[in-house]
Specification:
By secondary structure, the protein is an all-alpha fold. The chain is built from two helices and no strands. Helix 1 packs antiparallel against helix 2.
Length: 101
């Protein structure tokens, strides 16, 4: 009789672990999707800010030099502020930040 109760308890434990693991996986996937959306939103904002700085730098050699130096220090490509178009539409290609995980 004791063996039967042990088997029933073990089966419940295994089922509870499977349920908990499934719940964790679902929660993690949802949180990952939310984080991707936030990061994409932040990237759009940063791109907009970068465009604004480029527009502000047009005709201001000190600011152009400062932006070029900052981009070089960060390893970013140096952009020509004369080519900035504030009315340009942002490309809608979401970045997959977590593909390498």
């Amino acid at each position: 009789m004791l063996c039967f109760f042990a088997m029933v308890f073990e089966a419940r434990s295994v089922n509870q672990v499977a349920r908990a693991t499934s719940s964790y996986t679902s929660r993690r996937d949802e949180e990952t999707s939310q984080m991707k959306a936030r990061m994409d939103s932040q990237q759009v904002r940063l791109d907009s800010l970068e465009d604004l700085l480029d527009v502000m730098a047009v005709g201001n050699p000190v600011m152009q030099r400062m932006l070029s130096q900052r981009r070089a220090a960060l390893g970013l490509p140096v952009r020509d502020p004369q080519e900035s178009d504030p009315t340009r539409q942002q490309p809608s290609n979401p970045t997959d930040y977590f593909d390498d995980m």
